Design the sequence.
């Protein structure tokens, strides 16, 4: 069964361009992963520094492989997360 991730990220407006660039670079890598079905980055309308990510993987193992990738550590763990003022992540099974 497919596995989905919905993440809401918020950063200071001054960090928005750095976070945006890292998320778009992350999208490039993720779309090439064999277990990835979708990786969409949204900038929330009318809320500077707010992003919504929708990710879909073939299964939980596909997501786990994604999270174990070196570029995930570089772009998400070391670049994006330190700049966030708020972060929520929802994991779901696709029906």
Sequence:
């Amino acid at each position: 069964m497919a596995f989905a991730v919905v993440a809401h990220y918020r950063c200071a407006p001054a960090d928005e361009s750095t976070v945006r660039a890292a998320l778009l670079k992350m999208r490039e890598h993720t779309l090439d992963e064999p277990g990835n079905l979708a990786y969409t980055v949204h900038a929330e309308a009318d809320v500077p520094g707010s992003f919504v990510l929708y990710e879909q993987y073939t299964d939980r193992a596909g997501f786990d492989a994604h999270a174990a990738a070196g570029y995930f550590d570089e772009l998400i763990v070391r670049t994006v997360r330190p700049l966030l003022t708020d972060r929520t992540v929802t994991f779901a099974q696709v029906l």
Notes: The helical segments are 16-30, 60-68, 70-80. The chain is about 35% helix and 35% strand.
